[in-house]
Amino acid sequence: MLEDEIINWSKDIYQEKIANTQENFNTIMLVHLPLADLLDTFVFGLTNRHMPMDQAPINWKTDEFLQDLERIFEARPPVGQNEIKSIRRPKLLDILHDWIVGLESQPDEQHMRHRIFGYFGSLRLVDAIVAKRLFERDGGASQELAPADAAYFKEIFGHDFQVTTNGQNERLIVQLIRQARHAYTTRAWNLQKAYDDVMIASALNEELIEAAIHTVVDNVLTNESQPAEAHKRLVQNLQNIFLTKPTVSIPQQRDSASIAVFKEDVVAWGLAFYKTYSDRMDRFQQEELSSEIVSDSVISMIDDTIYATIGKALEGGDVLDSTQVRRLESECRLIFRQSPRLSDESSEGMDPNFVMDQISEWAKKLYDQRVKELGRELVTRLERYYVLEKIDENWRQHLHGIDELREGIGLRGYGQKDPLLEYKREAFGMFERTIDSINRETASTLFKVFDVGGEVEEQHMRRIEPQSFATSHSQVEVFKQVMAAQAPRQQQQRAQPARPGERQRVKTVVKAQRVGRNEPCPCGSGKKYKNCCGKYA
Questions:
Q1: Rounded to an integer, what distance in angstroms lies between the CA atom of residue 89 and that of residue 506?
Q2: Once rounded to an integer, what is the mean pLDDT over residues 102-128?
Q3: Among residues 435, 466, 497, which one ends one of the domains?
Q4: Tens digits of per-residue pLDDT, 216-237?
Q5: pLDDT at 434
Q6: Residue 153 sits in the same domain as residue 240
């Protein structure tokens, strides 16, 4: 049939393209790196990803680390979350290496390479290859590359890989990672056309998933006659693609209608799983973007706080004298819990712009240091909480002040001033002071929290966070409480409880006699009640 001829012709062309590009494809897949070394490199990179060396063990994501290992190797290593935090890095890598070697079912090499590249990413593997090689030699502290290491990198990344130094005070590992990435991406870019032909990159992800599922189902049903073996092989093949077990079973009857319905069910399951995975990745990206936005806002608040503090210290002058510099250092100590050392050797004073750059750079370094100590995830939570809290608190005070200004601005007319212009001028000044207060209080609170300790503050934040809205609404009752305190003495006495041992007296209710408007006034003036005491009643 013509359809079969077209299909066979397409397969021949596709196989020819695969054969022509196999060498290039192998270069991209780093086939010059043995599978055992690739697995060790993947574990090394995964360890640095979830358990960075520059972070305290309390901030390590050991649970996610074990979940990722289980996702790739379909088993968990013989170490627990808390045990990992107490094992030295080289010993932990040796334990994981022995565990991988001792797995009962050894993975297929091509399948495992695709699996690691698809999950971990090629550039992360490039970084891990360089970092692992230098770490095994001297912990990554050396600034000179050994000839054996240079030959190793050329074998992995190609003979055109050249190691050059930029002459700056930059660590060797940073330079090598940058150059390895450049060499790998350049080679991959040159081979992108061939790679796209092999991987059919022009197709949509949903189309690729549907085609892959149809191919897997057809191969299993064609080669396996026993239902149990067919189901086992189908589950294994689909699990290799989606990293999870499918929820469908092969029908007992293998007629065309049942197989077609079964394929539709498997495709629906695969597309639903892909949509869930895609939505989760989008959510992670949005959270990461939100974290970056909040972090940039906090840095801007710190800069604005420094600018306002310097402007306040200048007192209208052009330079900062020694007294103003000392005062500025004291203000920095109040805000940042520390104070930078500002050199004031010049008798003519210091340039405010130079001081601004100096303090800003010092504050950012201090902030980055606190972020590394506490971890980016915890710092992001603290930033979100306290930024919103300070904005809400100061904005409510600003609105209250605007209401008071609106009530009394009309009196400016008695001073021959335009109330509208005065209102605009003072309202704008109040708004600027509100922004300055938000920036200063946010920066001061965050640095105070960082010094006290992120864990203690986080527990405190969790404890008070559900009550934050109730606390805000309770502050509205302050005015009522003040008015209640100024109530007449009779109301206070009525609210006071009886003393211990003293019997509460019950007052007799006496109905007062009503005085008519035209009757004589009870005060004895002789006038009618409506013209005397009842005039203002």
A1: 81
A2: 78
A3: 466
A4: 888 888 777 777 888 888 888 8
A5: 93
A6: no
Residue 229 is encoded by which pair of tokens? Answer: 């073996």
Count of domains for the chain: 3
| Across 375-394, average pLDDT | 87
- As given in the structure block, the two tokens for residue 6 are 């077209």
Q: Which of 299, 298, 331 is nearest to 312 (CA)?
A: 331
Whole-prediction pTM: 0.38
Give the closest residue to 520 by CA, choosing from 531, 509, 508.
531
Q: Are residues 190 and 217 in the same domain?
A: no
Residues 6+ apart with CB under 8 A from 522: 515, 529, 533
Its sign, for the CA torsion 107, 110, 114, 117, is positive
Name residues whose C-beta falls within 8 Å of residue 65's C-beta, 6 or more positions apart in sequence: 46, 47, 50, 51, 84
CA dihedral 374, 379, 382, 385 (to 10 degrees): -170
Residue 206 CA to residue 213 CA, distance in Å, equals: 11
H/E element, 389:
helix 376-408
% residues pLDDT > 90 (the chain): 5
List 320's β-bridge partners, or say none. 350
Give 297's contacts (C-beta < 8 A, 6+ positions apart).
383, 387
Burial label for 123, CB within 10 Å (0-12, 13-18, 19+), is: middle
Q: According to the model, what pLDDT value does residue 428 have? A: 92
Query: What pLDDT, on the 0 to 100 scale, is given for residue 59?
Result: 84
Measured between alpha carbons, how far is 158 from 184 in angstroms, rounded to an integer?
Answer: 9
Q: Which domain holds residue 213?
A: 205-287
pLDDT digits over 386-445, tens only?
Answer: 888 899 999 999 999 999 988 888 888 888 888 889 899 999 999 999 999 999 999 988
| Rounded distance between C-alpha atoms, residue 235 and residue 247, angstroms | 9
Contact (CB, 8 A) for 184 and 195: no
The answer to whether residue 494 sits within a structural domain is no
Backbone angles phi, psi at 295, to 5 degrees: -65, -45
- Report how far residue 512's alpha carbon sits from residue 23's, in angstroms, rounded to the nearest whole number: 110
> Is the per-residue pLDDT at 119 higher than 70?
yes
Residues 159 and 231 occupy one common structural domain: no
Burial class (CB in 10 A: 0-12, 13-18, 19+), 114: middle
Collect all residues with Cβ–Cβ distance below 8 Å to 383 and sequence separation of at least 6.
294, 295, 297, 298, 446
In the structure encoding, which two tokens stand for residue 48, read together?
A: 């640095």
Strand partners, 528: 520
